[in-house]
Amino acid sequence: MSLQISDAVVWQETAEGVSLYHTETGDFRTLNETGSRIWMLVASDGDREPVASKLSREFAGDNTAVLRRILVDVHEFIGTLIDDGMIEERLS
C-alpha cells in the first residue's frame, strides 16, 4: 500500500518537529521527534512497510521485542493519520 500526504495538508519542518495543518478540517498539530521522523519517511518513501521497517531498525537495533513493539506503534500512528485525513493510503 502506498502512502501519500493529503493534498489538504499544509506542513513544514520546524525546530519543534513537523507542523501540520489540515485546510479542510482546521486540525493543527505539531508532531514530536518520532512522529516527525515517521512523517518525513512517508513524505520520502511513501510505502507503509518500508517506513515501519526503517524506523524500527533505527530505534530498536537488535532487540527483537522492541522492534516488534515499534512496528505495531508505527502502524497504529499511520492508521491515526489516515483516519484523521492527514495521509491517504492507496493501492500501489
TrEMBL record:
InterPro entries: PQQD, PqqD_sf. It comes from the Bacteria. Gene3D superfamilies: Coenzyme PQQ synthesis protein D (PqqD). Pfam families: PqqD (PF05402). This is PqqD family protein. The lineage of its organism: Bacteria, Bacillati, Actinomycetota, Actinomycetes, Streptosporangiales.
